[in-house]
């Protein structure tokens, strides 16, 4: 990414980098804000592949699959690599086209993926099978050397979890429980809710240890009743004071404190352009053909 940004004027590169950092920082916990930052970066440097990729993941995180697919296609055309192939296929699923996702799983691009990418593609293909009502085929799709391996890799927990979920969908509950347990064993980062699924299968219900209403101290309750009059007497004043305080405009906060909205003088050299396919059409989410 750093090398790509070096192709921009210095001030513009710094502004784009700031927005990309915020996208990465907020993507998991505040995807909507991450999406807004990605749109700013896209306006500033739409010709940079890293920007298009970041915009794609931000769109994907908020469920804007058509936008995400368009950005991923643009990034892939710029870089020529296939590492985004699985998430592009998953965008097709998100757009209600599982048959296209399944077709992508059989394309030559899959052979160019590293092991992690191929595992990801397998999970997307299994999801597409389930979308099409082929639950048994989804189970078979996930059966692989990576699933059988005892080695713990970054994808292991998610692969085992997907397999357990597929087994449960076809009524193989005992096997599903076993694989949810294996997923939990491999899930060192807490990326799945395997523990909750296990508890659900075992019929375990989690309740609060203490019920505030049942454990309240009678004396404290009496004190509370006595002080209620005081609280009510000041409620109107507090409400009046609060009504005078304007709610901050979130968009204004983003643009003023975090986002880099204004383009530097050097940015006039970079004009956003519509990405074109090899046939000369603008790339977009409604494009019927893929970008192979």
From TrEMBL:
Q: Where is this region: Disordered?
A: 208-292
Q: Which domain of life is it from?
A: Bacteria
Name its species.
Streptomyces rhizosphaericus
Compositionally biased spans, kind Acidic residues: 208-223, 233-264
Q: What is this protein called?
A: Tetratricopeptide repeat protein
């Amino acid at each position: 990414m750093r090398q790509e940004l070096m192709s921009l004027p210095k001030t513009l590169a710094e502004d784009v980098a700031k927005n990309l950092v915020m996208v990465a920082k907020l993507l998991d916990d505040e995807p909507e804000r991450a999406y807004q930052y990605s749109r700013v970066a896209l306006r500033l440097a739409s010709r940079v592949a890293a920007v298009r990729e970041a915009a794609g993941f931000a769109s994907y995180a908020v469920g804007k699959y058509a936008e995400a697919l368009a950005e991923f296609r643009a990034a892939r055309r710029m870089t020529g690599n296939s590492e985004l192939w699985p998430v592009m296929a998953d965008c097709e699923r998100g757009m209600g086209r599982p048959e296209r996702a399944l077709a992508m799983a059989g394309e030559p691009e899959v052979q160019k993926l590293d092991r992690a990418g191929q595992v990801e593609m397998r999970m997307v293909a299994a999801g597409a099978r389930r979308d099409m009502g082929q639950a048994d085929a989804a189970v078979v799709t996930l059966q692989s050397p990576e699933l059988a391996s005892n080695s713990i890799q970054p994808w292991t927990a998610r692969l085992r979890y997907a397999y357990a979920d597929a087994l449960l969908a076809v009524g193989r509950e005992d096997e599903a429980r076993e694989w949810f347990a294996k997923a939990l064993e491999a899930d060192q980062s807490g990326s799945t809710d395997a523990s909750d699924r296990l508890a659900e299968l075992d019929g375990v219900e989690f309740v609060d240890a203490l019920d505030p209403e049942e454990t309240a101290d009678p004396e404290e309750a009496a004190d509370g009743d006595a002080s209620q009059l005081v609280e009510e007497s000041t409620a109107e004043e507090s409400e009046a004071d609060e009504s005078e305080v304007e709610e901050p405009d979130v968009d204004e906060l983003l643009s003023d404190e975090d986002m880099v909205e204004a383009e530097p003088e050097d940015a006039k050299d970079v004009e956003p352009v519509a990405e074109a396919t090899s046939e000369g059409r603008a790339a977009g989410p409604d494009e019927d053909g893929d970008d192979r």
